[in-house]
Specification:
InterPro entries: B3/B4_tRNA-bd, Phe-tRNA_synthase-like_B3/B4. With 209 residues, the chain is of the alpha+beta class. The protein contains 5 helices and 10 strands.
Amino acid sequence: MLTIDPHPLLEAAAFTTTFPAPLGEIEAPASVRALLTPGAAAPLSADEAVRSAVRDLLRHGGYKPTGRGKPSSEYLVRAVTEGALGSINAAVDTCNAVSLHSGLPISVIDLDRATPPLRIGIAKPGEKYVFNASGQEIDLGGLLCLFDAEGASANGVKDAQRTKTHAGTRHTMSVLWGTRALPGRAREAARWYRTLLEEAGATVDVVTE
């Protein structure tokens, strides 16, 4: 289902999830929403060493993970601190909770909106995609991305609008952008992530660990 190009730093974990009903009919569990509040207790916690290692991972191909192009995990820290992170849906809320506490960027896509084959690799110079409903684009050159047959669809900064989850989503793929500088962290975070989803009634299948 997923191939990964050789990379000296990447230690990715990926799995698929099937929800018992469309996301628009499922409320994120209170336990997950609680994880998105300041000071919430969690099995993992991030620090400056994690932040630095993640930036080094994204920087390897030539991408500059700063400013508006910083890792999504860093955005979550700021959003929670400012009280600006609201509930989106059960899939995204769970993804955000694990990313926030593990310090690892995580992508979650609607599998039914993606066209196989799926591959992880570094985007070429000039590649772009729209990442929100307003039509804004991100320059992907040098950035590790998840690709499908139509092009890049997700990464550790901003996921593509065309494969984002929505009210009708029932099948997703999650990719944890881990690094060999933090050995085993992606695997540990993925196991916790899957547990949270299973507790919410979803079925998960490991793609790579």
